[in-house]
Amino acid sequence: MYADENGYKYCPGLGIPDFWQNGSELNFSSRFAAMFPVHRMRRLRQPPTLRAMTRETHVRREQLIYPMFAVPGRGVAQPIAAMPGQYRRSVDELVKECRKIHDLGISAVLLFGIPEHKDETGSGAWAEDGIVQTALRAVKKAVPDLALIADVCLCEYTAHGHCGVLSPEADARVLNDPTLELLARTSVSLAAAGADVIAPSDMMDGRVAAIRRALDAHQFTDTPILAYAAKFASGFYGPFREAAGSAPQRGDRAGYQMDPANAREALREMELDWQEGADVLMVKPALPYLDILRAARRRLAAPLAAYQVSGEYAMLEAAAQKGWLDGPRLMLETLTCIARAGADWIITYYAPQAATLLR
Ligand code: PBG
After folding, report:
1. Which of 98, 192, 228, 334 is the most exposed place for a label (fewest CB within 10 A)?
2. Is the CB of 237 inside a 6 Å radius of any atom of ligand 1?
3. Atom of ligand 1 nearest to the CA of 246
4. CATH number of 62-358
5. Omega of the bond prior to 144 within 30 degrees of 0, cis?
6. For residue 335, which of 299, 302, 307, 304 has the smallest C-alpha distance?
7. CA 42 / ligand 1 centre spacing (Å)
């Protein structure tokens, strides 16, 4: 509602003076009765051409990012039980799949690694010949135009499955500041191996600044950071943890990932990561958190990403397998809703299927 120079209040988009809208002599239903039959919303819905012309949101193949899991070995493509159609692949198989992904018109993949050995600090994360480093070099060589995003976290590499270094005390808390150095070291090693974008998913405080500083110090000033900025402690990561073998041995991630109840805090997290130098800000999971994405879209000028996570995929696939839901239809519907809420980049296990349909 805004007022013109005569003090008449207008409803944005309607151009109808306020006395029509809020006049005490008119109640809600009579106001709508006054608008029908002049206004008929169905006019633009019925002819398919007009309906298509009126469509406000379009999912583009170029905005899709496909998450993939690299494992040691050769010729390996292990199905992930709770994610039908998704695999853990050895580097040779990953390269083949990346060629297909690129041919489908998808711009980028997000790489995760499952190392041969895990240890207390997660040293496999920054190993020169680490699983993701090896995958990055191979894919960069074979498919140079595919953008490679490297997830940065220690949970796939630590024996305890937490995203950072644990305190030696019995309470085994995840220590923030000692973890930063390891995340920075991992980021530099991934950039050196060919990562085009660095994506920290650990939720330690100050990690974006630490990673930016380290990248810049190693001449990676042009490597952007996609920050998992508002990452919630969610039950929807279950299938991923099975896929990556990264479930915490004890405890949970509530000490570092966000409380699903908190929206204001999510905006603070996003603003902080932005100030620390992140280039793209992510909300994760996607569908149950579209209000956060929308609020961020209104408040921030930053490019935004949303991650439709493993559990969101598993939920739709399970219902589709049972014949309870129409899988392909819901794939496009959910991706459209994520774009409508404000996502520029969409990370989804549906990327290949969606790109095929969107051709
Ligand atoms: C690593 C990480 C996780 C996911 C992305 N990066 C798991 C977690 O935080 O437990 C989840 C992705 C998905 O569920 O698809 N920290």
Report:
1. 192
2. yes
3. 10
4. 3.20.20.70
5. no
6. 307
7. 42
Whether 229 lines ligand 1, by a CB cut-off of 6 Å, is no
**Nearest protein Cα to ligand 1, atom 14:** 237
- C-alpha of residue 142 to centroid of ligand 1, in Å: 27
pLDDT confidence of residue 219:
98
pLDDT tens across 124-145, in order? 999 999 999 999 999 999 999 9
- State the Cα–Cα distance between residues 173 and 359, nearest whole angstrom: 48
The predicted structure's pLDDT at residue 40? 95
In this prediction, residue 31 carries a pLDDT of 57
As annotated, the active-site residues are 231, 284
| Domain range list for the chain | 2-47, 62-358
- Pairing outcome for strands 197-200 and 147-152: parallel
Q: What is the residue whose two structure tokens read 């005390």?
A: 169
Nearest atom of ligand 1 to the alpha carbon of 349: 15
**End-to-end Cα spacing for the chain:** 41
309 lines ligand 1 (CB under 6 A): yes
List, as one string, the DSSP characters of 299-321. Answer: H--S-EEEEE-HHHHHHHHHHHH
Is 163 a pocket residue for ligand 1 (Cβ < 6 Å)?
yes
Q: How confident is the model at residue 19 (pLDDT cuts 50, 70, 90)?
A: very low
At residue 273, φ and ψ (nearest 5 deg) are -65, -35
3-state secondary structure of 17: strand
Q: Are 2 and 9 in contact (CB under 8 A)?
A: yes
**Structure-token pair, residue 103:** 């041919």
CA 171–ligand 1 middle distance (angstroms): 23
